[in-house]
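Page 47, continued from p. 46.
Same chain as before, 117 aa.
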Amino acid sequence: MPRKFNKKKKLHVKRDDEVLVLAGNDKGKRGRVMVVYPTTEKALVEGVNMTTHHEKPSQENPQGGRLKREAPVHISNLMVIDPNSDEPTRIGRKRVEEEGGGRWVRYAKNSGEIIDK
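Result:
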């Protein structure tokens, strides 16, 4: 049954997660997620998928030149690293009951530990 209200897809990565790259030229590299783009299902990972960007001279950079910067990576090529065991793991979701209601949290499938604070 399709979603009626919140049409945004639930992603397994969030900002500030430590991730492992599973495919591509940077396979095996680890990095921290800086930005997540839910509409295109991509994420910007620190130090991964570096591209050369040609920049014209400006007041901030009077020399101009060729700069290295990160390009987005598809989230299917990323795996979250469990902060407790420092191992890559799949992500599950479960409901945690609290006073005043409950909330959904992400947990590591390998260890069962909750990843979200």
